[in-house]
């Protein structure tokens, strides 16, 4: 192997390490069975969700994850593997890809590391079904707004009754 080829491989390994150091989560998927058009549409949806989606050689990823919190992914790195990495929303890769899998009825989760915890394929599917942070906040706000609104209406009714 030439020195130049080794430098190219090391550059890819360094790129993977840098991405994973900044990441909140990384999900590994088996992407076989989708067409080029479907892959392009999937990449666009992932980009819109601020998720970095890349296909790397398993051997290079194995070298990059040695000694990191992502090392537990080594056991699933065989065959075709694509990596969805999120820096902002930890469950975004799982949620977006889950929706795409339902739409295309192809691809499978292999595993993922979300906020430092390893999840197998079933665990990633479970996490994908969780509502987003914004949805949880909206539900919380709705649940506390209802009793406050009812209390305010009650006070207004009492005030109106005293005014009569």
Separation, N- and C-terminal Cα atoms: 94 Å
The tally of strands reads: 5
- CATH fold label of the largest domain: Alpha-Beta Plaits
Determine the mean pLDDT: 87
Strand-residue fraction?
Answer: 15-25%
- Any idea what the radius of gyration is? 23 Å
Could you please describe the fold and organization of this structure?
The chain is α+β, with helices and mostly antiparallel strands and 164 residues long. It has helices at residues 3-22, 36-48, 58-65, 92-104, 121-128, 133-163, and strands spanning 25-30, 51-55, 82-86, 108-114, 117-120.
Task: Outline the secondary-structure elements.
Layout: H1 3-22, E1 25-30, H2 36-48, E2 51-55, H3 58-65, E3 82-86, H4 92-104, E4 108-114, E5 117-120, H5 121-128, H6 133-163
Antiparallel strand pairs: 1-3, 1-4, 2-3, 4-5
Kindly summarize this structure in a few lines.
The chain is 57% helix and 16% strand. It is of the alpha+beta class and 164 residues long. The model has no long low-confidence stretch (mean pLDDT 87).
């Amino acid at each position: 192997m030439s020195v130049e080829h080794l430098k190219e491989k090391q550059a890819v390994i360094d790129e993977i390490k840098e991405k994973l150091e900044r990441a909140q989560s990384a999900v590994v998927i088996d992407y076989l069975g989708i067409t080029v058009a479907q892959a392009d549409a999937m990449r666009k949806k992932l980009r819109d969700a601020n998720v970095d989606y890349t296909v790397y050689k398993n051997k290079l990823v194995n070298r990059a994850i040695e000694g990191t919190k992502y090392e537990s992914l080594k056991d699933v790195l065989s065959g075709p593997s694509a990596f969805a990495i999120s820096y902002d929303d930890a469950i975004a890769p799982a949620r977006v890809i889950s929706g795409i899998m339902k739409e295309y009825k192809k691809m499978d989760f292999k595993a993922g590391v979300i906020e430092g915890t390893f999840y197998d394929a079933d665990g990633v599917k479970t996490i994908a079904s969780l509502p987003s942070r914004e949805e949880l906040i909206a539900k919380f706000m709705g649940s506390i707004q209802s009793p406050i609104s009812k209390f305010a209406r009650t006070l207004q009714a009492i005030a109106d009754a005293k005014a009569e």
